[in-house]
Amino acid sequence: MRSDIQTIGAFVELGKQLRDFCEKWKAGSAGERPEFLHALSLAKESNPWFVEANIVHALGQWGRALTRDALGAWLSAYAMDRPGKPKTVGIIMAGNVPLVGFHDFLAVLLSGHRVLAKLSSQDRHLMPFLAQRLVQAEPALGGRIAFVEGKMQGFDAVIATGSNNTGRYFEYYFGQGPHIIRKNRNSVAILDGSEDQGELGALGDDIFRYFGLGCRNVSKLYVPRDYDFDVFFKGIFPYGEVVDHFKYANNYDYNRAIFLMNTEVFLDNGFLLLRENPAFASPISVLHYEFYDSIKTLREELKTAKGQLQCIVSGSDFTGDVPFGRTQDPALWDYADGVDTLEFLLGL
What we know:
Blueprint: H1 5-27, H2 34-46, H3 52-65, H4 68-75, E1 88-92, H5 102-110, E2 114-118, H6 126-137, E3 145-147, E4 157-161, H7 164-174, E5 179-182, E6 186-190, H8 197-208, E7 218-224, H9 229-236, H10 246-261, E8 267-268, E9 273-276, E10 286-292, H11 295-304, E11 309-313, H12 341-346
Parallel strand pairs: 1-2, 1-4, 2-3, 4-5, 6-7, 6-11, 7-10, 9-10
Antiparallel strand pairs: 8-9
Helix pairs in contact: 1-3, 1-6, 8-9
């Protein structure tokens, strides 16, 4: 079982097409790739949260990742020629952000296995479209990719992503066989007050990209007790147009009304609500914050909560921290929940 040159080449070709489309989209000439525009149109119709700029961002992120050099650097850390027969791997994909299941799809095919994918109704057009482009580049992959509706059957292993509630369901049905089951995770940022406007602006992307719906979106800030939130609000001001989206605006208005009725103390800049709260998860349009007195103590507390966190964002060079503005641009080896998907697949 190995990742053959043709499979890698097909993904490299797909990456080239994605980069070409994104460059044309930014230049205002996306009409030269009508097949991509049609896929985007279908995706937007299926999920009002999927605005075109965010879909293009997701396509661009994968376009940058699917290069021969990047794939080679990733795969070089593994023994790809391990003995074993190809297995059918069921992938249950979430639909909170565009193409959130693509890394699993990529890893299964590169490890020599077959994909049996169950798509979310919220993101059911983009993956089949990219799979079609992939098969055009390497027709042999057509027999290794299948999409299923309804009950998933005939699989040897499962990779499932969902909420804590669906995670319990996944554990019940798939826990007896080889599996990776992902549940809710959140991301946090640590500020020390020395951040400049460029760093805070980059943090804005970590907060607002995909309207905050992803596990890599920052949902909570840790700040020193004398922190000046006006500086933070100034840094994220360019993201104010997020409230022009009707679903985000509805959430903002609703949460603001609830806070007012409950006489909660909160900060408000017209498109984001900040409230002091110990929880990692925050509602859409709301960012939690918590004060810290000692960065060392905070790091120890976050270490104990590792199983609940996807990313820790900061401007420091602390091992494992993600730089400002990079949460939505992970490397191929930045595995969700810290679980090495490729190692799992190669061990089947």
